[in-house]
Request: fold
Amino acid sequence: MGRRVPSPNLISRVRALRVTRGMSQQELAQRVELTRQAVGAIESGQYIPNTAVALRLAHVLRCRVEDLFILADTDIGTTVDLATPAPAEARRLAVVNVRGRWVGYPLTAGREVQEGFVSANSLRDEKADGGRARLLGSPEDVERSALLLGCDPSLGILSAHLAHRPKEGQLLWLSMASQPALDAVARGEAHLAGSHLRDQPSGEYNVPQARRALGATGGLVVAFARWEQGFVLAPGNPRKIRTVVDLARPDVRLINREPGSGSRTFLDELLTRADLPPRVVTGYDRTVASHLAVARAVADGVADVGIGLEAVARAYGLEFIPLATVHFDLIIPRDQLDHPTVALVLELLQSRALRADLRALAGYDVDALGTVVAEVPAAVA
Reply:
């Protein structure tokens, strides 16, 4: 079949390509005349197939032989000059080469969560009725773009990694709470969605919600990240907030997330368990629409506490008390798996560079990045 090669410099893309084709490991094994264990070894990088097997794999997966394996990302192998001082724990850099010198900008002090305008690829025609628009780019570029809706700020990192390969695909990420993102996918208004909703009866994350969103098409739930979620607090926690019971104190002001968000759902679960009605929490009805906005409200002194991510709290220099480990997954309709940019996203989830970039965020666990959590069948009519 080939040879055993635990090579750290070679990454197998066979599993990612198989998933994009909607094939099981057993089906691929049968079609290329191998055992399922052999295919598993190839997918894990333990074996490199010989030429004949590689040709059969490429034929079945509808790709080139050279697409089956890629070289691992490597270090730039030189010294980086920091543009600004950085604390020892700051690992994430934005590095550029300026006139032959590598310059690194530490992603700290709010820089890693900076916000800006989203680039438009069309302009609405104000003189015409309805939704007529004038494209600012070529129709081909717009057609191969994929829209990802989700609230995890690290989706910007995924989008940036894909931006390095603009000729292969373009990913547009728009921040949106979990349930509205799933609803948009169900309506056929987005290619994929990110979600961190927990089903209270089963305790399962995202899969029950995905079954409803993907009822018409079926599809996949693919792991993205597990992150720590909890109380985002002012430095030093001056209000001495420790548990959800403290939210009922008259001197504590909450900043909440909008209905349909995973954070709002999580807070409501905490209040229910503590037998606290929302009306006793000052600020329960005051909402913002992102994890960053929660941290910003606390940092600006507008609120004393909010539910958010550890990584965002640390980026704003805030205190954080963990309450739960949350599963954030990508929900993808089956008919979108062959979209070139969606397929490229699935491929990038296998990238060591993306994994390293995400892992450096505080409270992020990406060990399951890119694994299929569930295959959701279409609902029977």
